[in-house]
Amino acid sequence: MSLELNLNHKTAIVTGGSAGIGLATAKALYREGVNVAIVARNPERLETAMEAIQSIPGQGNKVIAVDADITQAESIAAIVSQTLATFGQVDILINNAGSARAGSFLDLSDAAFIDAWNLKLLGYIRLVKAVVPDQIRRRDGRIVNIVGAAGRTPRPDFLPGGTTNAALLNFTRGIALELAQHNIRINAISPGLTATERAEQLAQQQAEVRQISVEEFKANALKAIPLGRLVQPEEIANLVLFLVSDLAASITGTEILVDGGQTPGV
């Protein structure tokens, strides 16, 4: 018996949807018949991503590209209003856009922290606040925050990202209690080292901090993963599909780690 996700005719917003985990997630949702609004700051990459999604056989569903900067409050309103104008509702929000600089703590400026908090932490919070009125009205909503393992296990050379992720886990768990009364579910996925362009950039930055080659950094990183391989973006996308489906109807306020067994704990 196959699992029926029953997501066709729903509408999703996916931020950071032009590459990596965001693009993999947008493709997975589209395959399930979901209307998708992909959001990113680079118009050329957005166009390429939209064409890639449109090449996938659909079920009469559509994809639109929204060029927006989620560090700007007015952009948040534009993302939601454009999606509502096109599709009439927002059933699913995938918060995925975010970046933070790796570096030695003493070498990082205030801006490194502020930029990370403004883009990812406040960007996620603003988008949740923008989409839930429609979801409350219809008493149905599914939100997934792509966070990161550094929120649980701090790394001294990635404190802007780690502090952002830790705050997002707190936000996800806290707001889940308020949203549950409206039948809106919100969960977090924390990927470990994932095979994305973003991971390549971080590897270069962290290798520089440790004064080793990028190749040596990557080899050491793989040794620290019990399963011995990187997470693939499609693995995160598959988990997103489950969490936004009714198969996960009783799951909210939860963080799921996808890191090859790297994070210890009980």
Describe the model.
47% of the residues lie in helices and 14% in strands. The chain has 266 residues and is of the alpha/beta class. It has a single domain (11-194, 233-258), classed as NAD(P)-binding Rossmann-like Domain (Rossmann fold). The chain has a seven-stranded parallel beta sheet, sandwiched between helices. Helix 2 (43-54) links the parallel strand 2 (35-40) and strand 3 (63-67). The two termini are 33 Å apart. The mean pLDDT is 93. Keywords: Oxidoreductase. Pfam families: adh_short_C2. InterPro entries: NAD(P)-bd_dom_sf, SDR, SDR_fam. This is SDR family oxidoreductase.
**Rg value:** 18 Å
CATH topology: Rossmann fold
Overall strand count: 7
Main beta sheet: strand number and arrangement?
7 strands, parallel
Give the CA-CA distance, first to last residue. 33 Å
Shape: globular
Indicate the percent of residues in helices.
40-55%
Mean pLDDT: 93
List low-pLDDT spans: none
DSSP strand (E) fraction? 5-15%
Structural class: alpha/beta
CATH architecture: 3-Layer(aba) Sandwich
What is the assigned CATH homologous superfamily? NAD(P)-binding Rossmann-like Domain
The overall number of domains is: 1
Strand/helix succession: EHEHEHEHEHEHHHE
Keywords: Oxidoreductase
InterPro entries: NAD(P)-bd_dom_sf, SDR, SDR_fam
Family: Belongs to the short-chain dehydrogenases/reductases (SDR) family.
Organism: Leptolyngbya sp. NK1-12
For the structure shown, list the relevant keywords.
alpha/beta, 266 residues, 14% strand, SDR, SDR_fam, oxidoreductase, SDR family oxidoreductase, seven-stranded parallel β-sheet, 8 helices, NAD(P)-bd_dom_sf
